[in-house]
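wait is this the right file?? whatever heres the structure
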């Protein structure tokens, strides 16, 4: 074999070594790149935020009205109205003539014209001052709203002759007057003496 031939074979061997070295180099670069890529993906996955849902506490959620609440509201008492309406005089018409110191049993027919029932604490009271003897207030005759009732006072007429007037009105338990006023109007007259018969003349 000639020296030139040996030189050619050595050159080919060198070229082959250089090719394998390049391939190994690029393979190493590729493996390193893939390793970095997977490492980056893993860290990116670890850094990805996660979301979770936390329910509101029961106290923060507005509750709907219960049956008990609705029932309590439906039973809220309403404010009633007091009223009394005069119907007629049952005894002692206005202008009646009576004797001095006579006992007067005055009665009026009235109607409960309001929406409140007359019960304990309701009174019939005298308005102002007058010359009649007797109580200044009496318990009001109980009556439901819309029904009729009788008011009654027993007084004593003045002793002096003249015309006399007394006013009365209903009063609520809290002291408020309400309704129509009722009246007693009389005339006191002294009885006319009966003349004694004259004796007949004797024959």
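ok assuming it is, sequence goes like this
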């Amino acid at each position: 074999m000639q020296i030139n031939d040996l030189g050619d074979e050595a050159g080919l061997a060198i070229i082959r070594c250089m090719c394998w070295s390049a391939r190994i180099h690029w393979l190493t670069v590729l493996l390193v790149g893939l390793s970095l890529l997977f490492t980056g993906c893993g860290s990116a996955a670890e850094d990805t935020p996660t979301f979770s849902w936390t329910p509101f506490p029961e106290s923060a959620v507005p509750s709907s009205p219960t049956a008990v609440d609705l029932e309590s509201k439906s039973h809220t008492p309403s404010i009633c109205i007091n009223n009394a309406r005069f119907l007629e005089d049952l005894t002692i018409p206005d202008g009646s003539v009576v004797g001095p110191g006579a006992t007067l049993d005055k009665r009026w027919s009235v109607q409960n014209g309001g929406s409140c029932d007359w019960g304990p604490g309701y009174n019939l009271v005298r308005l102002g001052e007058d010359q009649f003897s007797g109580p200044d207030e009496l318990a009001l005759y109980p009556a439901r709203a819309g029904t009729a009732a009788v008011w009654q006072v027993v007084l004593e007429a003045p002793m002096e002759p003249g015309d006399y007037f007394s006013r009365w009105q209903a009063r609520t338990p809290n002291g408020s007057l309400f309704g129509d006023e009722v009246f007693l109007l009389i005339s006191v007259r002294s009885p006319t003496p009966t003349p004694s018969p004259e004796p007949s003349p004797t024959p």
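The radius of gyration is 59 Å. so i think its the right one actually
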